[in-house]
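[Solved] Which block belongs to which protein?

Original post:
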Amino acid sequence: MIKLQIRVITLLFFIVSTAVHVFAQQSVTKNLELNSLIPLDQSIKKGVLPNGLTYYLKSTDVTKNVASYYIIQNVGSVLENDDQQGLAHFLEHMAFNGTKNFEGKGILNTMQKHGLVFGKDINAYTSFDETVYNINNIPTTPELIDTGLLVLHDWSNYLLLTDEEIDAERGVIKEEWRTRQSGGMRILQKNIGTMFNHSKYAKRLPIGLMDIVDNFEYKALRDFYHDWYRTDLQAIAIIGDIDVNQVEEKIKALFSKIPAVKEPKERFVVTIPDNDEMLYSMAMDEEVTTSGISFGIRHPKPLKEETVASLKASLLNNMITSMLSARITELSRKPEATFLSARIGYGGHSRSTKAFNITINPKPNQQHAAFKSVLTEVNRAVKFGFAKAEIERTITDFTSYYENQISKKDDMSHKRIVKLIQNDYLDNVAIADIEKEFEIVKSIFNTLKADEIHSALKKLYTDKNRFLTLTGVKDNNNLSKEDALNIISDVENDASIEAYTDEFGGKTLISGMTIKNGAITSEETNKALESTTFTLSNGIKVHYKYANKNANDVKLKALSKGGTSLLNDTDLPSTAILPNVVQYSGLGDYSSTDLPKVLAGKTANTSIGISGLSESISGSSVTKDTETMLQMVYLRFVKPRFDENGYDVIMQNVENYKIRRKENIAEKMKDSMTVTLYGTNSPKKRIFNDAFIKDISFDKIKAIYNDRFGNAADFEFFIVGDIEKEALKPLLERYVASIPTNDTKETWKDNSTPWLSGKIDKDIYLKMEDPKSSVRISYKNDYKYSLKNALIARALGDMLDLRYTETLREEEGGTYGASTNAGLSKRPLQKASISVNFDCNPDKVETLIAIVHEEINKMAEGHILQLDLDKTLTNYLKERKQQKDYNRYEMSLLTRYYREGYNMNDSKNFEDIVNNITIKDIQNFAKTLLKDAKSYEIVFKPKV
């Protein structure tokens, strides 16, 4: 896998804050030593072996009885010579194709036997400066701890790199390149020189050059491996439910034997030359029809970030980008705005640089105005700084976030922990003790003055090391370098710019509202689920379960039957954008720009959804803000907001989407699939075009919302999380029992749309810049729904996925990967289906399609590997066990019980079924599914 990590547009939101007033003068620590080191997180053990290998160990039971294993190679594509372009990434692939202790596909086969899945639990990525491998959530039996360490040991120094495996992987890499090629990628390839001032980064996209991938000599790859994969450039991390001391001893015993490389090559860091004049480039592509602007300012990256001074700098920079982003978002929500969206961030750019970056998505043919508008807002802050209310609100938001992270520190995922470790190893960013760091931050804020923030912004917005890249559009008035420089000069010298004003404050979500409490009329305990059902005086039922597997976390769902199945066909276009309009309208008395200000310091949100058969309201909050979440739910029913300005902004986005998709290959394929399967005039399966847009209406959106969300008693409520029952009950009486309701109950109806024909076989030719074929194959048939049949269907799809990885990818080298799904629907119709999708070389289409059908037919004929079935079923049991460590499982437990009628915790509904699925079950399912099945085989090919 390739991870570009071109992070000039990434905001590394390292949030640090305090509730103390920013202008307070009394300091917790009067003489804060800026050169003092930040207290380190002592729960992460770090060591270095005599051969130079670094190790990190972290004990956490966020997921019980498993551990994740990582090796971080301080090696990436920038280390390649000109004749090695692509070999860093190629080497990453080879790590899964034979090592000293795991020949061939030994690593994958070993891990899959224990329920791990390639691509999800087992993976790697290559970037410019690092290559990282991972095996996640391996059970922590003594045997598998040793196995996990042995894999890291082999990845460190013992890849086999046989001629046969190298040759077999060339085709896979070529197909990965083919799959990733797109208009956006070609734009990047044209603009990357400007982004990195034509340094080596600009010539080292990790995928490399296909001429080299196809033709390099074996020795070239082995030389790269022996030059750079070495202990002084490696760190391993083991994170999970482990005994740290025990694992440390194992690491010392196993990894100390790896010899250090004598006279190693220098691990150089590529520097990016300074530039006084702004760098500029514009790129266009036939398949890209909307513009984009990226304006950046490079800065040297600190060699180490481990002191109070570096903490303070990060704090100020993140306050700046947060406040600027809020201003820009507010501006974008106005219909007269010249841009659709914009982002402002400060973060990693290369190993040696960071960048302050502004990215803008202009409205059609408004590049100049959009650039000037966003740049004016940035310069408004550069000239005048930030308003007192902005600063105070930002502190409140940061504080809430920081306190939430402290409360959830034991629930941090393996993925987040290893990111901290990577930053420490690769970029010298210290892993701080979050609670002690917070105390330091309080001291920083106690004496912080507004002009310090202002000065920090001026340091970011400098006149050196600037670069601007443009995605241009044919026949548009594209922003030239001269135009951009003139706009920058005009804005920076514009004496008419005035300071930003912000006086909003002192309001709450329900200010001025009178709410008449309802009551809980009955309370029923479900002993099997350890849950409670409350019946409220307005007829609403609320199913509640206390769960603190994830601390300080509360989730809500309100579900109702019906969805779009009860709407007129002419309402469907309006329904498609309804959730977006609701989001852009705000809530209650507050617009979408005022709502975040009202909610400053609150961690609570709600959203609405409408699917084919149901509508829903979802919510989440931290424990202390459960009341805010329920207030928002109350307003969703009682005082929804429909803002015409918000609607206008969304419709402008809709028009831009129409333009953007015009020449986009993926969108053309999507439309062609719809027409091929359902015809050009299907009222329920419409393509996105002018006629679709014409049928969207603001009044319809309001009417549809009121129709679908007009009666809360038709919704079933579910609340799961870290809130005690006695604390929740008065909140339910105030905010849920008080919602007006009626006795109307609804259900869904069958509004399904059949394919035009029972057998569809069609080739579709499209003009493409980079020729590739895309294959879409599917079978479907009537099949009785049951939990067992649903699991058999799922197993069939996952087993086919294993087969296609072996045949289509590894044996044929014909595709980077096939996406395979098999499933069983329960409603509106009980049907089984299989679908297989993949991209490939146009010359190999017929060969690969034949393999797809052959493997499916083999399943129906009983030619099934017991090993594949065992791998698949073991994965199901492993995943279910791990799911139970999270609150979200408890939400599924409640919704499945009350909506689907079965208890997930009862082994007869999962474990017993999985343990008893046989090859015969898979065969019978596949055979029945294929008999007289409806099917399609649609192949997209390049137009010559």
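(Second protein starts here: sequence line, then its structure tokens.)
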Amino acid sequence: MQNKGLIRFFAIIFAIVCIYQLTYTFITNKVENDAEAYAERVVDADAPNSSTLIEEARKRYLDSVASKDVWGGYTTYAGAKDNELKKGLDLKGGINVILQISVRDLLIGMADGSTDGDFRNALDRADERVKDGQQSYYDYFIEEFNSIDGAQLASPDIFANQEMEGRIDFDMSNGDVEPVLREELQSYMVSAFDVLRKRIDKFGTTQPNIQQLGNTGRILIEMPGERDIKRVESLLVGTALLEFWHVYKAGEIAPYLVAADSYWADKIASEKGDVVTDSTAVEENVDSTEIQTPQNDTSLEDLLSDNEIDSEDSIYEIDDAQYDANPILSRVLAPGNGSGPIIATFRASDRQLIQGYLNDPQAKAKLDPSQRYAMFIWGRPELNDELGYELIDLYAVRSNAQGEAPLSGGVITNAKQDYDINGKVIVSMSMNSEGAKIWEEMTTEAFQNQTQVAVVLDSTVYSAPGINDGPIAGGNSQISGDFSVAEAEDLATVLKAGKLPARAEIIQKEIIGPSLGQEAINSGLWSFAIALLLVLVWMFFYYGRAGLYADVALLVNILFIFGALASFGAVLTLPGIAGIVLTIGISVDANVLIFERIREELAKGKSQADSIKDGFNNALSSILDANITTFLTAAILYIFGTGPIQGFATTLMIGILTSLFTAIFITRLFIDGYGKNGKSLAFTTSFTKTWFTNINIDFLKKRKTAYTISGVLLLASVISLATLQLNFGIDFTGGRKYTIRFDQDMNATEVTSILSDPSVFGSAEAKTYGAENQLAISTKYGIDGEDSEVSADIESKLYNSLREFLPADLTQEQFADVSVEDKDYGIMSNFQVGPTIADDILTGSLYAIFGSLIVVFLYILIRFRRWQFSLGAVAAVFHDVIIVLGIFSATYKILPFNMEIDQAFIAAILTVIGYSLNDTVVVFDRIREFIAEKTNWDFGRTVNGAISSTISRTLNTSLTTLIVLLAIFIFGGESIRGFMFALIIGVVVGTYSSVFIATPIMYDSLRKTKDRPRKAIPEKEVE
């Protein structure tokens, strides 16, 4: 081998760079362990909210050392964190979401809120079509709009408006308007991306990942290690619609609450056929004149004092009869002060009910005419520790017929978290000149009338301060509202980053708690260590000292892989660990190919030096062809996959490149170095010296038997797929999936029955997930509903339905909180996929499979110059994939682990394709070589001889790969067990098909042609 010095130099430099890069990971782990120890030391473990306090203490510690030198000035913690090996969600916990920016909202905004019938009709039709279609929302909208006779996009009632002035004119055709709208939409998408990126940057999460997914209006956001999940969700989907409203005093609106209560009491009594009693009494106690002309000093507490309802009573002491008699007042937990902005305090869970009562058109008719446009808005829910549930305040703001606020947040130029003179947390903000003028007018009016101005963000009142010191000029003011520092920082971040140009909806979400992430790390490391040890032992056992050199090269390869991942900023995931372990098999395969060729040359009587030289040269073609086909499938997997699947593909591609380098060059350095002084290297041991030698099997003679066996397996697979079908996961169907841990062994069938009750979800499925006390529960309940509301509803139903199986002292909040460190019971993770993106994922997966087949077909066609080779390889791949699918179809109801068809399974299928092609290409490469060398052999003898000569390599590689996969399958954790099972089946079937399907089909199709090989097929030189 030439240029040994240069190769040695690059290997050493690469190793040093990898070690240097990995030191950052060592440093961050040490600092974070110190932070955990500090937090546990300063926080009382018996405190009611100890987990929250520990997390806050941990963050304080890390914040305090972020900019300090560590390791003797080597770096800072913040610097090390930026350069460490990034761990994915499944190893670290955190949140991963895909947001869909509403194109409908954007179009309505561009049309200046147009209510044109044609426009709205086209939007509604696009809403329906996009649910099951593959095109973008905009494309469907344009198709539907153009299908309406006479509909013009440039109508002054639609897009030829002030909003689009200068870009769309009245005389433009629909064809002229379409590209303008598309370009404008794209600019809005960029704006949305920037807003979200600014919010996340200000949030403080380390190593966030945010990227636009093409031109779909979808944005992927990954925040590994983030534990404050609710805070993240609210920050991501909040539109940041900031408004300032004049507020009614409680005394002005209190009579309406009583009147509305009386109206609903009568209505409920009428519907039930009861005699009106309590509500009538209430109505009699409130003079109708007072209701029509409320007095500013009227207090709800005064109005309630004449009723039979005691506002101090526990809500649990009020029976249904009292609720019916006073549906609103009976739910008041605390009345507001007559001159204050808070009308009353309710239980947060009653919010929707009370909102419906108050906004009923017939009930609102009882408002004073001057109040007919009043809007009822709620404050922020706050947990009352004594009561054990959340309370929420009700406000009423002065609106107009259009429901427009006097001042909106678009005028905000800056905002920051601050403190007032009393040390209270506030948000300071400043406005532009237009906003400052309106703000001065509003504060002047509020000061003169001694009323309040409500600061409303996304329909939630953050504060309603009185203006006691006169009008506020200049546009600089403060928002106070009993904030924590984190809440004030979030509010300031949202205000400063700006509002999203349209509603953002979570269409895919994965949340993994830190406990489950730590378990995944442990299981992943165990599987990795065991697989590595078994392979190292096997290589030494089979090849002796040469195997030991291969082991050293393998360890160097692993160092290179982890170093490359850290250097490129790639994310290590649990499937990524599987990819690394699978790379071990690929690396071993390259060494096996080389060693087997060297043994062949030694058997011919060549000197050791010549055998090593020729062995490496002869193996190079097979190694390159095999690894290129696998690399192509991994690349396609990376292009079409998302999240952990991309992690798997990334590590696989890096592993293939480093494996080539270490197998071809590092191993060669050791072997040449050992033999340069004339030392003998046998490339075998006394036990394995005669294994797989002098094999001469007529494989082609057995091809009809193989065709029969494969035909039976294929037929059985097709029948199973047609009858039993496949168990599609929510990746492809849409829905929600929760991993829940109990304090007792669970019966999955019983839980399925409980949750499938019409009063719960109507349809659900529970499966044992790993241990007997852990279930994976899937449901499509509320899949089309608003994410936060549906998620809260599902968590409540899960808790209440399964409460008997949970610890008695486990609250619903503890049950649902996935962010708790060392969590023992409750929801450990949840995964959500909307129906629209599920359909897209399925389509993308099919593209990935067929795309890989096409690419590989073309590569083999170019490489071997005959389509018959491509036909044999692709036929074998189809054979392998259908059998794997058939086995999954036939056994998913029987086997005790997850066998869903999801994105991970697609990754497994593509890996099976790559492995099968790897095996097939090695055989084909030897056939091509034999055709060139054995010119006096007939074609059949050539094919048989080539297969026989590679059987040692085929079995050796298959055995080591199976050892690796079995180790991961047994020790690698429940989340990838189905993935590993598919790979194990694929390796077995792929090994069989490369010999008994791909090669015979190539032989049968080629021998019947006029140009079947009789003479050498010239081999294309390796470039």
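Accepted answer:
You had them paired correctly. Confirming on the second one: The two ends are 17 Å apart (CA to CA).
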